[in-house]
């Protein structure tokens, strides 16, 4: 567009992907010539090798259990003989327990930290939405109440990542977006804050990595909430029930099953 058709300065307009070089519409659908081809495919081949290695291990374990009439463990852990009863037996057993069940015990706190990381890394409109969701989840306070709203939170994360992915792709090469027209009161900073698709200030796709890590941990935490209702898992890993919600400080030590290592002498 000409200078009278948009409010973008000429110097800023020169940085647009439409005017900085030839535009290949095939790149919009993900087609681009790459040389050498092996360098381009090495990450995909590495992922396929890891998946094949994982399937081989699972098949070998299943075959070994069937041949020896063994049952599969209740929880997919590394140390099958370590339970909640071994947590306070020593440092070695404590480390083994947390290797098995760290996310079971501290997965919710990990999700909160990742949510704060997303807010701090983005600092835009979607960071504000993440902040509102974090406040809404923390307002529930009780773990049981948080577990009830958690599936909705996971659905929100999945939908917002999908929507932002399409924003990063944008539309096929065109003269300009509506918010770049002469009648629109948008500058580059507002477009960047709103995470709008644009040919000059393109959305940062790295933000989707932070959102994906949050979605991954939130999905694992949803599975953890479901495992907390299974008796077999509670026997192995212990429960996550708040024991001090209705207890005062004076009687707390009488109901706490964990040994007092500070005042034991």
From TrEMBL:
The chain crosses the membrane at residues 37-58, 102-119, 125-141, 153-179, 199-220. GO terms for cellular component: membrane. The keyword Transmembrane applies. The keyword tRNA processing does not apply. Keywords: Membrane, Transmembrane, Transmembrane helix. One of its GO terms (molecular function) is mechanosensitive monoatomic ion channel activity. InterPro entries: Piezo. It comes from the Eukaryota. This is PIEZ2 protein. It comes from Onychorhynchus coronatus (Royal flycatcher). The gene is Piezo2_1.
């Amino acid at each position: 567009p000409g200078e009278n058709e948009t409010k973008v300065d000429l110097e800023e307009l020169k940085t647009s992907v439409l005017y900085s070089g030839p535009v290949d519409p095939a790149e919009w659908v993900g087609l681009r010539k790459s040389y050498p081809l092996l360098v381009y495919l090495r990450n995909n081949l590495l992922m396929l090798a890891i998946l094949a290695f994982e399937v081989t291990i699972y098949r070998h374990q299943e075959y070994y259990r069937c041949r020896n009439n063994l049952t599969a463990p209740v929880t997919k852990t590394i140390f099958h003989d370590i339970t909640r009863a071994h947590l306070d037996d020593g440092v070695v057993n404590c480390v083994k327990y947390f290797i098995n069940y760290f996310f079971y015990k501290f997965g919710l706190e990990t999700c909160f930290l990742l949510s704060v990381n997303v807010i701090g890394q983005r600092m835009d409109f979607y960071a504000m939405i993440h902040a509102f969701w974090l406040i809404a989840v923390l307002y529930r306070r009780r773990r049981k109440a948080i577990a009830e709203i958690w599936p909705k939170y996971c659905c929100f994360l999945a939908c917002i990542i999908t929507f932002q992915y399409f924003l990063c792709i944008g539309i096929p090469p065109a003269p300009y977006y509506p918010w770049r027209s002469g009648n629109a009161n948008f500058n580059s900073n507002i477009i960047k804050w709103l995470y709008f698709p644009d040919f000059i200030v393109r959305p940062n796709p790295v933000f989707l990595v932070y959102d994906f890590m949050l979605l991954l941990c939130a999905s694992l935490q949803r599975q953890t909430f479901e495992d907390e209702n299974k008796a077999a898992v509670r026997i192995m890993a212990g429960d996550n029930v708040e024991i001090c919600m209705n207890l005062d400080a004076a009687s707390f030590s009488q109901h706490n099953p964990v040994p007092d290592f500070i005042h034991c002498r």
